[in-house]
Amino acid sequence: MKRRKYALAAVAAAAALVLAGCASDGGDGGSGDGGEKPSFEAGSTMAKLQEAGKITVGTKFDQALFGLMGPSGTPEGFDVEVAKIIAEHLGLDPEEDIEWKETVSANREPFIENGTVDIVVATYTINDERKEVVSFAGPYYMAGQSILTLADDDSIKSEEDLVGKKVCSVTGSTPADNLEAIGAEPVLTDAYSKCLDPLRSGQVVAVSTDNVILAGLAAQNEGEFKVVGKPFTEEPYGIGLAKDDTDFRNWINDVLEESYEDGSYKEAWDATAGTVLPFVEPPAPDRYEN
Amino acid sequence: MDVIIANLPLYLQGFGQTLFLLVVSGVAALVLGTVVAAMRISPVATLRVIGTVYTEIVRNTPLTIVLFFCALVLPLLGSKLPYMVAALIGLAVYTSPFVAEALRSGINGVAIGQAEAARSLGLGFRQSVTLVILPQAFRMTIPPLINVFIALTKNTSVASAFFVVELFAIGSKLANNNGSAVIPILLGIAFFYLVITVPLGLIANQLERKWVVQR
């Protein structure tokens, strides 16, 4: 019987380890820069964040143009700039008072649910399934799935040409599921940058994911690849936050609208993704009912 | 829990791939590792050196780099291997020095008198190794060898980064599609790994009791 006890203990320990990966950490941030501070209703999330003098933001660290960890030790990209705009409107210093946490597809919801991060800005597609556990401000950008091929390959013009062919994408991503749905054969890895070698060596005919990510890959490898066809899905990128924190969500939507008006949104775009992608008018925030 | 039940076919598909990776690369690593161990105890100096160099190089290279080489560098050198085969080769090569070291510790545990007795009976090197030393060494290496295979079970998950859709990759896929139940999904994945590793540990204990060399 002793042995059975050990086996149970082993199962419990393994479960604990899985969960420990999601532990959150507290900690005090520094104080703001003491400049003009907007004032918020006591008890609101905005007031709490301002009080703490710190906001924790989840973003991608491996997504060129949107959230890419640079040599400086802080991530850079459009998502990062959007988060900075939000921090600024809280009266925080965007360079000092943001704690960046890497979020990957599998941990975005748990991180929001257990308070590890305050908001997630990480090429995060809004969908109904996710709305069950988190709330979304935005959309602040409308992406769409597209196709990347070798620059000298003219055989692929749209997603219809991918049926039955091997196409590279990332494990556990919406684009990978879409490829399966249209009848292509997904070849999966953990980062889009790894998809380029199979494309070069001819083991896949294309790479497929959101057009903005493909543009980043094409830009990093000048003249080697091209983005073909029109986007065949709509991926509205939103800002994830705690479910039912409607005040906070509406406030972020206000901030987004204001950034569209005062040009800070376009400025953020031009400095990052705008270096390789044309500017498109931002979508209106969706103030959906819970 | 409902999420796991609803996606059981996918879980099982991933589990099958993981099991396949484990068994095939495990057997290959066992064969390779035995050869390397034999090289390291052989009377021929050149073989000993080759065995030692191989062990040190492969054992000290991170698995990710070994698999990266198999899946991404070999194709650039003109190989046309399917990714599954590349992963199998990478896992087998990476695991073989650990097998060899476990065996060697077992071989070193065989009393020197056994080898001398074999030689005085007129057995050659090959015969004394295959008939006298290795059978005893295998028994003594069962516990460390099982440890190696438990590690290999978990190492197979690295293949998910190199175009093989095994258990861990299925986990990422399900987590992405079921944002409201990420934790249960990951616990389900952990459970399937335990289905392999816990029995391995129990088998190790059983065999150890049954086979231990009587002194």
Structure description:
The complex is a heterodimer of chains A (290) and B (215). Chain A has 2 domains: 7-143 and 235-275, 3-Layer(aba) Sandwich (D-Maltodextrin-Binding Protein, domain 2); 145-228, D-Maltodextrin-Binding Protein, domain 2. Chain A contains 10 helices and 13 strands. Chain A has helices at residues 2-20, 45-52, 78-89, 108-113, 128-131, 174-182, 196-200, 211-220, 246-262, 264-271; strands spanning 55-59, 62-63, 67-69, 75-76, 98-102, 119-125, 134-143, 145-150, 166-170, 185-189, 206-210, 225-228, 235-242. In chain A, α3 packs across α9 and α3 (78-89) packs antiparallel against α10. The relative contact order of chain A is 0.16. Chain B has 9 helices and no strands. Chain B is flat and about 70 Å long. Chain A binds chain B through residues 3, 7, 10-11, 14-15, 17-19, 22, 105-110, 127, 129-130, 132-134, 168, 171-174, 176-177, 187-191, 194, 197-198, 200-201, 203, and chain B through 72, 75-76, 83, 160-163, 165, 169, 171-180, 182-183, 186-187, 190-191, 193-194, 198, 201-202, 205. Chain B: InterPro entries: AA_ABC_transptr_permease_3TM, ArtM/GltK/GlnP/TcyL/YhdX-like, MetI-like, MetI-like_sf. Chain B: It is a multi-pass membrane protein.
